[in-house]
Amino acid sequence: MNEHIVKSYEDExxxxxxxxxxxxxxxxxxxxxxxNSVVKRNQDLASAVVAxxxxxxxxxxxxxxxxxxxxxxxxxxADDLRRAMAAMKVAANLERCGDLAKNIAKRTLVIIESDxxxxxxRSIERMGKLVQGxxxxxxxxxxxxxxxxxxxxxxxxxxxxxxxNALFRELLTYMMGDPRTITACAHMLFVAKNLERIGDxxxxxxxxxxxxxxxxxxxxxxxxxxxxQA
Length: 230
Known about the structure:
The protein has helices at residues 3-39, 43-74, 78-111, 118-144, 147-155, 157-177, 182-214.
């Protein structure tokens, strides 16, 4: 194969990966800002998160278009095919993280109309930081093809669930103690559930990285605590 064609093909694959990492940065910012909008009761920040969601949607569509075009024209096999498919799958998970961040921001716009629930807000902040850390780590693992780091994210899947379960009980206690808090607490519960789901998408990406590098599916179930469901 002509050296120029090989280089062009490699550039296309590298470009796909780079675009996913760029999209990951957008998703990280959306999640961070969504959490901050809850913590700081910041209406402008929440509105900005909702408005920016289209950028992630467009980024996913562009990655999907580029991946399909590469597969159609280059017909990659083995490692290269896994790499191309991984980019498309990672992008889909990042787009969902963006949707969940937007949902958190929309809930924030309702929550800030009620009196502050400071202890609950602190719990949301702790859970948010944990989820943000997992998302950052798994995007880094993808960008560096770092299997060890991806496995570390995967093995810590239950930490987010534990935070969610504790917050679920805390919210129930508030609602039973003061019915006036029910509306705000219900929206807080959805915020927590969205954060848990962002954690699940980080775990999904860890599994994609594992498959991209090894060609093997993850074996065994995810490490889970007995999760309460909202």
